[in-house]
Amino acid sequence: MPTLRDFQNEMEEIHDRELTKQRTQALIDMDKENKRPPKPVPAETKTEVEAASSESVGDDHDFEGMQLEIQTQLLSGAEPDHDRAKDALAQLLTRARGECVFRIGSRPPNIKLFAGEPLDGESGWSGVSRTLQEVEKLCKDVTACVEEVGGKVSVLHKSDTVQPRAALLLRLPPPNVALTPEVRVAVVGNVDSGKSTTLGVLTRGGLDDGRGRARVGLFRHKHEIETGRTSSVGMEILGFAPDGSPILPKTANSMDLDTIRREKLGWEEISVQAAKIVSFIDLAGHEKYLKTTLYGLTSGAPACVMLMVGGNAGLIGMSKEHLAISLALNVPVVVCITKVDMTPPNILAETIKQVVKVLKSPGCRKTPVFVKSTEMAIELSQVFANERLCPIFQLSNVTGEGLDFVRLFLNLLPSDEQDSSKFMNDQPLEYSVTDVWSVPYVGTVVNGILNGGTVKTGEQVLLGPDSNGNYQSTVIKSMQRKRAPVTTADAGQCVSFALKRVRRQAVRKGMVIVHKTETPPRAIRRFEGQVLILYHNTTLQKNYQAMLHCGAIRQTVRITDMDHPQGILRTGDRATVKFEFISHPEFVKEGMKLLFREGKTKGLGVITRLLD
């Protein structure tokens, strides 16, 4: 029986291969359209993803070398060296896209640090050791240099025990809202695990009263306020200023519910002040809203998933379901154990033991790391996604315990907008619609993620496919990012467009917006994919119907054919299956990952061939 890990690796290979093919073809097509001779594509080109990953590894070593060189120049005390260090710092910040963790002194071994062992002894430390005076001098000089080039510095961590060391956050304020880096975090977990309350505390600043005060400002519907249960995909943002401090409303500690709802900071106010934005996708925990939660996970393209586990209840119900879906989609996971103030110590110990057991199980194969210090939060934020680590935070929204570590971790999470393995600016425009509204005096407004290319206001675009597989021409009247007006948008950003002469009824979730060309992209009704059945209580056969989630697409599909010798599929089986959309054709591409479900049945797969 094929293991999930093997199948996921194969899925990634197919996805990367198809993506490289499509990007190469797109560049040739763009050159043809612009009447330029096509650029030669070298035969031995590595896949984009390999190139990107090797580049990032090279960059890390490069950044460390640059930081050591800057420190040597600043310690020399000579005026020319000081100027050279200032130029090098400006170059470092530019290459790191305006944000960089600057480490002074030697670094403890990550294995010891993450295991929570005492950091004594000389073995395993990396970098150049510094005296306490050198650390102080470097902190002061680096701050002065960065401020001279228009940046801001905040001290993240300073230690004068064992080996004196410090970590500074260097940031350049973005020139406008269109260039502010964003990190998307999906928040999942079982009912009553404290998802909305934790987000309320993180984004509003005031602590909870233990009776749901913090979550009141987050709900979108009247029935949500009455029941205390999220039923829709809620969006909240947390902005961080250039100096690293969270941007919170002035009335953070108010006890009045009306004040909490009324006095919250507007998104545009946060966007203007922020040097980095963390967007939370608040998903529903109740079983009957699983379809909505799945849609939020597949369409929101989150950089990581924050799994909330109630300390008093443990990993129960939908928590396991959400964890399984996150692992199936290969999204890094962060666990937050909430309500530690009201949970008896023996129950909390049981919950922790259960979480560790599940994370270490063969299905997860992750290394749990309990975040107990700022230094751990700093190091984990940079490496947890690549090294199969799972940070675990223990929080209380009533006493505030552990919240500072979470804020620091979120502040340092790298933005995936610049990840060339996911999003590229030099590709044709591709924007997937995840939400649609009709706004009075504005018209039809769509929200979604720019998967490729760049776009400007006033550009002519095509929107589709409709129920017949056709595309209609429209113009982008205006554009907003986090409710602040912008004129341009780049790949990887989440933006809203106001569309000209388009009726609200003509737009649905899952549609795409592409550049206006002679030949619009093909709308697909039938396609072939490789799938692995994660769970089914009996057998799957021909004509079986299930709900398919593929990016922003959510539609019922029918299995028309399968290559299994017996013509049936059970749990753990793998096969090449032909699917057909039931109601209307969609825009799909080879290499796209898909997830299908119906009741408790779940399957995971990747599109390998488009049929018609």
UniProtKB/TrEMBL annotation:
GO terms for molecular function: GTP binding; GTPase activity; translation elongation factor activity. Residues 180-419 form the Tr-type G domain. InterPro entries: EF-Tu_GTPase (IPR050055), EFTu-like_2 (IPR004161), GTPBP1-like (IPR035531), P-loop_NTPase (IPR027417), T_Tr_GTP-bd_dom (IPR000795), Transl_B-barrel_sf (IPR009000), Transl_elong_EF1A/Init_IF2_C (IPR009001). Pfam families: GTP_EFTU, GTP_EFTU_D2. Keywords: GTP-binding, Nucleotide-binding. Residues 26-60 are annotated as: Disordered. PANTHER family: ELONGATION FACTOR TU-RELATED, GTP-BINDING PROTEIN 1. Belongs to the TRAFAC class translation factor GTPase superfamily. Classic translation factor GTPase family. EF-Tu/EF-1A subfamily. This is GTP-binding protein 1.
